[in-house]
C-alpha cells in the first residue's frame, strides 16, 4: 500500500478499494480453484524467480539495470524463436509453457464466447 500511496495517483479511498478487490479476487481464486498458480509480488526478485520457474525459464540470466529495470538475457536460440512468433502465437506458447495442457483449450473456449 505504501508504494501506491507514494505514487500519488489515487486517493486513499481508491487504494483501499483496490486492496479489498484484490483480496476478494485472490480468495475467490483459491476457493474456486480457477487459478493453478498465484504469484504474490511482495518481493520482486522472489516473485520473478517463481515466475521464471513456472514458465520453464529458470535457466535464463537476468539482471537489474542502472535505472532499476529488470533485464532478461535469453539464450540466442530462444530469442530467434520468440522473434518469429506473432503475438497470438507467443500467447499460445506461453500458455503451453505454464504446464496445464488444458489451458490453451480453456482460453480458446473463452475467446469464442466473446
Automatic annotation (TrEMBL):
Superkingdom of the organism of origin: Eukaryota
InterPro entries according to UniProt: GK/Ca_channel_bsu (IPR008145), P-loop_NTPase (IPR027417)
GO cellular component, one term: cytosol
Keywords: Transferase
Domain Guanylate kinase/L-type calcium channel beta subunit: 3-55
GO MF terms, alphabetically ordered: GMP kinase activity
Keyword match Transferase: yes
Pfam families: Guanylate_kin (PF00625)
Protein name: Guanylate kinase/L-type calcium channel beta subunit domain-containing protein
The species this protein was found in: Crotalaria pallida (Smooth rattlebox)
Amino acid at each position: 500500500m505504501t508504494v501506491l500511496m507514494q505514487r500519488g495517483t489515487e486517493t486513499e479511498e481508491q487504494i483501499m478499494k483496490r486492496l479489498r478487490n484484490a483480496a476478494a479476487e485472490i480468495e475467490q481464486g483459491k476457493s474456486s480453484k480457477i487459478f493453478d498458480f498465484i504469484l504474490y509480488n511482495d518481493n520482486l526478485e522472489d516473485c520473478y524467480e517463481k515466475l521464471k520457474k513456472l514458465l520453464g525459464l529458470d535457466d535464463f540470466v537476468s539482471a537489474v539495470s542502472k535505472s532499476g529495470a529488470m533485464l532478461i538475457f535469453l539464450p540466442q536460440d530462444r530469442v530467434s524463436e520468440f522473434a518469429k512468433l506473432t503475438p497470438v502465437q507467443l500467447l499460445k506458447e506461453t500458455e503451453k509453457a505454464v504446464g496445464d495442457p488444458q489451458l490453451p483449450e480453456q482460453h480458446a473456449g473463452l475467446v469464442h464466447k466473446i
